[in-house]
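REQUEST ID: PR-0412
SUBMITTED BY: lab tech R.K.
PRIORITY: routine
TASK: structure prediction, single protein chain
INPUT:
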Amino acid sequence: AFLKTHQKNGWVNLNVLTSQAGKPYVELDTFVPKKQDDAPVKSEEKTADLPF
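STATUS: complete
OUTPUT:
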C-alpha cells in the first residue's frame, strides 16, 4: 500500500540511512528537480589567439 501511494511514474525512491544510535531506517526521497527554462549559455572559444 505504501509503495503504490508514493510511486511516481512507476518508481519509488528510498534512502537507507543510519540513525545516530546506529540503527538503520528507510526514508522516502521526495526530491523533485526544478525545470530549467533556459539552456546554459556557452561562450565562444577564440582560436585565433593561440600562443603557438
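NOTES: The mean pLDDT is 86.
REVIEWED BY: pending
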